[in-house]
Amino acid sequence: MAERKTLTSGRTRRAIKIGGLASQVGSSYLWASLRQLLQGKDRGRKFLYDAHIKNARRIVESSKQLRGAFMKLIQMLSMRADMLPGEALDILKLTQSNVPPMDYRMMSEQIKRELGAQPERLFASFEPVAFAAASLGQVHRARLKSGEEVAVKVQYPGVDKTVEQDLRNLKLLLQTFAALARDVMRQKIEMRKIYLELEERLKEELDYVIEAQNMAYFGRLLADDPEVVIPRVIKNLSSRRVLTMTYLDGYPLADVLAPGVDPALKTWLAKKYFALVWRQILEFGALHTDPHPGNYLVSWEPKLGILDFGSIRRFSEPTRRAQLKLALAIVEGDEVALGQALVSLGHLEPRQDRAPMVEVVRILFEPILVDRPYDPNEYDSVAKAREASELAFAHKLYQSPPHSVFMLRALIGLDGIMKQLGVVANYRAIFCSCVQRAAQVRGAKG
To answer: What pTM, to 2 d.p., does this model score?
Structure first.
């Protein structure tokens, strides 16, 4: 695809494009459903499959043209196995890889506006061709006058305006996906929560000052782990729309997920990433909630590098303690304590029957209830999500506290990465180790 010179902008233009896409996707599924009724179940299934593939390709192509909020939405949807069939998700995951970079002159002017001078004056050297480009900005390699190698993340000029436009225009497409999840996946999707999550995340990700603070915070949290590396922010060359950080070298996580990679490296990565996610939840009370592979790399030592800190959620201390109590109850098989923790987390009312929600937890946490080597691909995420959803619907378990939206996103991402790695391991043992460490270091009292 040819290099994009400008960001597709203009409220009317973007509204027409997104509205037209939503209409195409909705009409396609409606037509496939009608043909399914007319042609019979077996032939109808093929029509529906074809619609998934065709629509996923339409969406990917549009996202690469529009970028901004729209691409961020598609990246989020590509990890929602409860909303879309696997065949469509595989295509949507293409939005997680690099997209063509934008014109260098635009990015150079953006740096001048933010930092007061052209990059050639600020850095000893600055590569005009970005080595990574995404929905909201792109990253250039550079060298400080001290000789240190750095990565410079530059936000696309005007992208903050397109985000506001897209947030107003995306509701129709979200309604289409919610209907698809209901009719095809048999999932009850709360569109408003997804919309609010997207809105909050995007507004945070547009402010690189917040990302710099998150990066420094995680650097302190993980300073005791020699197998995790976090970039260091170069403060005097950073602003709200430009973020300069030390350069990390290594292989993109997507490369390690591919077939044919050394099994020992995959095993190390699976165990490391699994433990890292649970350490964040149970010990730190701070969670990296954007787990797509483009945000990670693996060095040859090996070490796991985390590159993007635009979407971080910090939980209150009572919430962190309740999450640890929940984990302890899961490990110990204590259903009474489990029910109490679910009340503390806001999933249940104090007088509500706890048994159905305890069963939902058992369904969703099956991989860490099994004390044996476990293949992540044994766990059918879509079927289990449907089973849990039907149980929740039958017992009117509708409460979903705000912190659970971000937790769900991170855990869905974890499940996806574990499945791609395909490493057979005793994940219960790793989980138990994380719970024990968190209990010793931070405790669950209070």
So the answer is: 0.79
Amino acid (one-letter) located at 356: P
- How far apart CA 356 and CA 340 sit, in angstroms, is 13
CB-based contact 230:295 (threshold 8 Å): no
- pLDDT reading at 190 higher than 90: no
Backbone angles phi, psi at 97, to 5 degrees: -90, 175
Backbone angles phi, psi at 251, to 5 degrees: -95, 135
pLDDT digits 0-9 by tens, 34-90: 555 555 555 545 555 566 556 656 665 665 555 666 676 666 656 555 555 555 556
pLDDT for residue 109: 97
> Phi then psi for 297, rounded to 5 degrees?
-140, 165
- The fold of the 103-155+207-247 domain, in CATH, is Phosphorylase Kinase; domain 1 (3.30.200)
Provide the CA 333 distance to its chain's centre, in angstroms.
Answer: 30
- Rounded Cα–Cα distance for residues 444 and 446 (Å): 7
> What confidence category does residue 414 fall into, taking pLDDT thresholds of 50, 70 and 90?
very high
Distance CA(211)–CA(137), nearest Å, equals 13
DSSP for 330-382 reads: HHHT-HHHHHHHHHHTTSS-TTS--HHHHHHHHHHTGGGT--S-B-GGGS-HH
Cα 445 to Cα 221, 277, 348: the distances in Å are 21, 22, 20
User: 361: which residues sit within 8 A by CB, 6+ positions away?
Assistant: 326, 330, 338, 342
Task: Tell me the pLDDT tens digit for each residue of 358-402.
Answer: 999 999 999 999 999 999 999 988 788 778 878 887 887 766 777
User: Which residue blocks in 206-344 are alpha helix, DSSP H?
Assistant: 208-221, 253-257, 263-279, 317-332, 335-344
- What distance in Å separates the CA atoms of residue 206 and residue 159, rounded to the nearest whole number? 8
Bridge partners, 359 (sequence order): none
Provide the residue ranges of all domains of the chain, joining segments of one domain with +: 11-95+168-189, 103-155+207-247, 250-446
The two tokens of residue 48 are 């529906």
Which residue spans within 13-136 are E strands per DSSP? Answer: 125-126, 132-133
- Specify the higher pLDDT residue, 279 or 166: 279
